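Risk mitigation, structural track. In case the binding assays with zinc ion fail to produce interpretable data, a predicted complex structure has been prepared as a fallback.
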Amino acid sequence: MAALDRSGVLAWLRSLPEEEFSHLLAEACQGRAYRHYDITDVRYAAAQVWRDGDEPWTVELIAAEDVARYQSTPFAAGFPTNDPIVRTAECSGCGQRVVSWARWVRCPVCGEALSCS
Ligand SMILES: [Zn+2]
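Fallback model:
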C-alpha cells in the first residue's frame, strides 16, 4: 500500500458528504481502546454537535449499527454510507445520547445494545 499523504487524507475527509463522513468516523472509532496506567479505560467516539439558534449545544455520540443484530438481513453487508443520521436513543448502560442511521446500534462508549427511535 502506498504511503498516505496526511494533507490529502484530510482534504478527502473534508470533501465527503455529511452522511459518508459520519459513517466513516464512527467506524474508525469502533474497537479503538486502550488502558492508561492500568486503571483508566480509554475509548474513542465520534460525535455530532448541534444547536438551534443561540440555544446550548447538544452533543450526541454517533453509534454504528449493531452488526450482530443485522445478520441475515439486507443490511448484513453494512448500511449504505449515504444513509442519514435520523435516529436517536439514550443509552441504558451509560446514559449517553447517541444518534445513528440504524435502528439497532451499539453504544460507542459502553457497548450496550440499543434500539433507536
Ligand atoms: Zn452506553
